[in-house]
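can u do me a favor
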């Protein structure tokens, strides 16, 4: 009975906290799922969710002039600074993080990354989140919003709405194949590995 009473008394505060997420306050980012990123924290990178092993939602800042984010796999980052917080929805949000990256081979580097913190903290397209975090903090994508947006579309617009993702998918596949080819030319992949990955990508179209 006491547990029920406490749950009832605390529910307004829990609800209010959830409604205020995500947030960036006192140099601490809190995601929709409640995961916090702050100075002094060590982030754990998982694996990239693209077919070529690149991270879709964690990028090196353009000032570093590098895009080989697959090197971050299974690495860590000691957070030293957070800035440039932006949020207008799960597909348009970011935080810029500077710190020391330790790659899985032990090499260290001062790095500057941009993170789509909502997508990077959710299981995406059947794959684990790009940031290794506890299951309880993973963002759970809401289906209701998608349904509401679909209802607002006029019936005449449906055919075009269905074709647009296909066009986008073809562009993404072509981009992934180019990245695989770059890895092959750089010697990171054998010809057999390149052809096998390329075949998988083409079969997904």
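np, heres the sequence
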């Amino acid at each position: 009975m006491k547990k029920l009473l406490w749950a009832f008394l605390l529910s307004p505060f829990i609800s209010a906290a959830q409604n205020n997420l995500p947030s960036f306050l006192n140099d601490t980012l809190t995601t929709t799922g409640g995961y916090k990123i702050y100075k002094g924290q060590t982030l754990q990178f998982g694996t990239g969710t693209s077919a070529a092993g690149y991270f879709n939602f964690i990028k090196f800042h353009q000032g570093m002039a590098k895009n080989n984010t697959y090197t971050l796999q299974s690495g860590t980052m000691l957070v030293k600074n957070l800035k440039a917080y932006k949020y207008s929805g799960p597909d348009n949000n970011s935080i810029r993080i500077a710190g020391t990256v330790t790659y899985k081979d032990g090499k260290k580097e001062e790095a500057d990354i941009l993170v789509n913190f909502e997508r990077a903290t959710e299981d995406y397209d059947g794959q684990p989140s790009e940031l290794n975090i506890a299951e309880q903090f993973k963002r759970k994508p809401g289906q209701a919003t998608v349904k509401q947006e679909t209802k607002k579309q006029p019936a005449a617009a449906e055919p075009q709405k269905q074709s647009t993702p296909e066009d986008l998918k073809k562009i993404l596949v072509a981009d992934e194949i180019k990245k695989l080819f770059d890895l092959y030319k750089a010697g990171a992949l054998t010809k057999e590995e390149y052809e096998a990955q390329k075949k998988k990508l083409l079969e997904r179209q």
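Helices lie at 2-19, 143-152, 158-185, 191-203. hope that helps!!
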